[in-house]
Design a protein that fits this description.
- Helix 12 (about 270-285) links the parallel strand 10 (about 260-265) and strand 11 (about 290-295).
- The chain has a seven-stranded mixed β-sheet with strand order 9-8-10-11-13-12-18, with helices on both faces.
- With about 575 residues, the protein is α/β, with parallel strands linked by helices.
- It has 20 helices and 20 strands.
Amino acid sequence: MSKIFSIRIGGMAGDGISSLGEMISKVAIRSSLYVYTYNSYQSVIRGGHVWYQIRVSDAPLKSYGDSIDLLVCMDKDTYTYHAPYLTDNGKIIIDPSKIGEIANNKIISLPMLEIARKFSDKAILQNIVAFGFISAMIGSSWEVIENVIKENFGNKGDKVVSENLNASKAGFDELQHYNLAPIFSDLKPNKIYIMSGNEAIALGALSANCKFLSQYPMTPATSILHWLAEHSEEAGIMVKQTEDELSAINMAIGASYAGARAMVGTSGGGFSLMVEALGLASMIEVPLVIVDSQRTGPSTGLPTKTEQGDLNMLVGASQGDSPRIVLAPGSVEEAFYLTQEAFNLADKYQMPVIIAADLSLSERYESINKLNLQANIDRGLIAQENSPDYKRYEYTETGISHRAFPGMKGDEYVASSDEHDEYGKLVSDVLAGIPYGIEKRVSSMEKRMKKLEHFRGTINYNVFKEGHQTRNLIISWGSTLGVIREAIEEISKEGLYFDHLHLNVVWPINGEKLKEIFGHYENILIIEMNYSSQLGRIITSETGYVFKYKMLKYDGEPLYTKEVVRFVKKNEAFFKKGD
């Protein structure tokens, strides 16, 4: 049986809670353990309650978990808010000098501040004392801890490195004064890869030969910009932080028009500003990858909380009918490979491809398998120079025509936001409304939409089967994949079985194939992180199937395994038990 140990660290914004959590995660993975994290923070720089959860195991994990085995209280609020979620055998670390004595037999009184003062007058060093103590509890070796400290603080000078090494070693040695055995034993340094969703998207873009990113910072997509900017020189990518989202998307369109693979990252509010330019990309048939890391809305909403509330906008936002593909990765690893696929689809179909991530996926860290950085790159149909009678927007059976780039002799054409014929000649100024213009408008509109219909016909769906015959099915999309799979495992222990259909292509929908799948099930539950079941409505419009059972969450918090289990048990009478 695998062991699982969940650590939650809480305190005030600005107190280094996130950095502490990330360091513990590094120690765990370098000790041959698997990690899955969640970072809960506020939109202020200082003040407000924040917490970081690290779930650690000696086997792969599917979610951040429901409960807490170790609660680390850097302030009194952490104890108040989170102690009720502690497991029966859980422990709570407090510093009595900071938050007072607490009458609870689960308390570990650790004088973090007193120990830290031995090495520096910086109060933040108490985090490093906690880091050493927690790492020792996990079972990590001092060698691994020492390397993480040197890596994290090496660029800040020998004095800072020495202070942090001494504080962490003091915390590490402190464990022997408590009647506690390490959670994991015989841990040896090893390589297990860990990555956040945004880092996976950024790395996926690089491996797909993306050469241009333009982005205006907006939580929770900002770290895509930061990561690519940090690695831009060695990776050979132009990264531009723009003055606003309008500039960002228009620059990316220009780069793509010139022949470079281009991407833009944003969140829902920024995407709203990009809509007019999105229509331009569709009209001139320029490939473009857009990352929308969703947070709660409408308007500013809860800017540091998660939701799947942008799907209606991602599918429908445009003046007029405008083709686009929307992909929704369910895990960090899938985010990497789906980003590679997004660039191929954008080039092949010469249209915008949107990656619908969310805060939960973008900012969490997961242990992953070694990634294949050698992407299969497909640039689609490219014209040759001096193509005879070159028609940039040639009317074809699939709607896909040959692209030409500036500088290709004999393949010049006009790319305009106005309607045009197959050569790019405008029909909107003096030709609209006359027979020629009417015919070209219809033909050009059908050409653009044919591409979407062609892609629709290529979509296949794979149903995950837990291992038992069942007439129950769960449908979901995006970042909730692992949580739902874990919940299905829990529910099956009580003889109630579900298959699972995870959609990572949420637009367009292959309605005929979905109807075929639905025919095998009596009860279908859809789970979404929004108020109105946005994917459910799309599926209904494409298939005619009306969902009787919906689990919808929109409080800004991530989906938890126990919530899915609780919902199913509450409605158990509606689902079929047994094989």
